[in-house]
Write a structure and sequence with these properties.
The protein is an alpha+beta fold. It has helices spanning 4-16, 25-35, 126-129, 147-152, 181-197, 219-228, 279-291, 307-313, 339-354; strands at residues 41-44, 50-54, 58-68, 73-79, 85-90, 102-107, 110-115, 160-163, 168-169, 175-178, 204-211, 232-240, 261-268, 273-276, 297-302, 319-327, 335-338. The strands form 3 sheets. Strands 1, 2, 3, 11, 12, 13, 14, 15 and 16 form a 9-stranded mixed sheet that branches. A 5-stranded antiparallel sheet has the order 5-4-8-6-7. InterPro entries: Peptidase_M42, Peptidase_M42_aminopept, Peptidase_M42_dom2. It comes from Brevibacillus reuszeri.
């Protein structure tokens, strides 16, 4: 497949950028560098959403694409007298995934590394060894022995923290693993779609939104949709992939390498967040895939939601769906996506926009 190498380079560049929810400025700068030259209009809103506009021949038809820029991470909340840094979660974490990691604190003076240390195995009781250590008991060791030394490194309460992990393609394959494939994979899709559409004349006007603060409550997408008032909105994100050991296929039938996931239904019962995608949209998305024999998967999920939720109910509401790249190990330090899946996701979204009629 042509262009996969280029796609991989872009994904790796995006994945390397730190951008915890609320601290998306560096990702925004990348999106601007790549997209401003190939769109008709651009603006940034109050929350920091980046809005790139390609005008179509029919100003009455508005399609909004939305890929969130932020990644899950942490924020410094205390530095103790021995110099250890405690932190709070930003976004949903499984605390088992946070132990014995190298984390990067993004201070005003640059990046400071630390490790999430733990009690040596020799001292852990049998009972303790079976328990996950709660997030509030984790701490970051930045290699100092007192508070003054940690402060001297530039670490302050309020600094954001990311996993520190060099992304890579595993063993020469097209499987990429990195700290923030959720959702730099979606950002990669959106950049590519807009670049490929740049030279084409299309019917609808497309608003490509790189959104903020998705991981803490789908915040940016809602306000952006309120301002744009699209007819149709599509979240571009990653979807939880099964197909790995100890994952029940009945619960997680989506698999990596089988193409983009067209969402039909998502619901988070504890909050009511979710999106029951209207059939008149899913039909068009399936048609867009089948027109070019693009492989796709039908996705239905309980226990989570995407930017599609807030876009669908903002302002007067919008017909909203979600097209996702399947990803293994989401919401951990080691997400994994496949380049072919990303390429097919781009093709599906491009096909949908080109074929779009009200
Ligand atoms: Zn996401």
């Amino acid at each position: 497949m042509d262009g996969l190498e280029q796609l991989g380079k872009r994904l790796a560049e995006l994945d390397a950028i730190p951008g915890v929810s609320g601290d998306e400025e560096r990702v925004a700068a990348y999106m601007q560098k790549e997209l401003r030259p190939c769109v008709d209009d651009f603006y940034e809103d109050a929350l920091g959403n980046q809005v790139f506009v390609k005008r179509g021949s029919n100003a009455e038809q508005k399609i909004m694409l939305c890929a969130h820029m932020d990644e899950i991470g942490f924020v410094v909340n205390h530095i103790d007298e021995k110099g250890f840094v405690s932190f709070l979660p930003v976004g949903y974490h499984d605390s088992r995934m946070v132990m014995n990691q190298v984390l990067a604190i993004h201070t005003d003076q640059g990046q400071i590394l630390g490790i999430t240390g733990s009690k040596p195995a020799h001292l852990v009781s049998e009972e303790e060894s079976k328990l996950a250590i709660p997030m509030e008991e984790l701490y970051l060791d930045v290699g100092t022995t007192n508070r003054e030394a940690t402060l001297a490194l530039g670490v302050q309460v309020g600094d954001y923290i990311t996993f520190h992990r060099r992304g890579q393609f595993l063993n020469g394959s097209t499987m990429y693993t990195g700290k923030s494939v959720d959702n730099r994979a979606g950002c990669t899709v959106m950049i590519e779609v807009m670049k490929r559409l740049a030279a084409k004349s299309i019917g609808p006007t497309v608003y490509a939104v790189a959104s903020v603060q998705e991981e803490v409550g789908l915040r940016g997408a809602g306000t952006a949709a309120y301002a744009i008032q699209p007819d149709v909105a599509l979240a571009l994100d990653v979807a939880l992939s099964g197909g790995t050991p100890r994952m029940d296929e009945k619960i997680s039938p989506i698999a990596i390498g089988k193409g983009p996931v067209i969402l039909f239904y998502e619901w988070e019962p504890s909050t009511g967040a979710g999106n029951n995608v209207p059939k008149r949209l899913t039909r068009k998305l399936v048609e867009a895939a089948e027109r070019y024999s693009i492989p796709y998967q039908r996705g239905v999920g309980l226990g989570g939601s995407t930017d599609a939720y807030t876009m669908s109910i903002s302002g007067r509401g919008a017909v909203t769906g979600c097209v996702s790249v399947p990803s293994r190990y989401i919401h951990s330090a080691t997400g994994m996506v496949q380049l072919e899946d990303i390429e097919y996701t781009i093709q599906l979204v491009e096909s949908f926009i080109e074929g779009y009629q009200k």
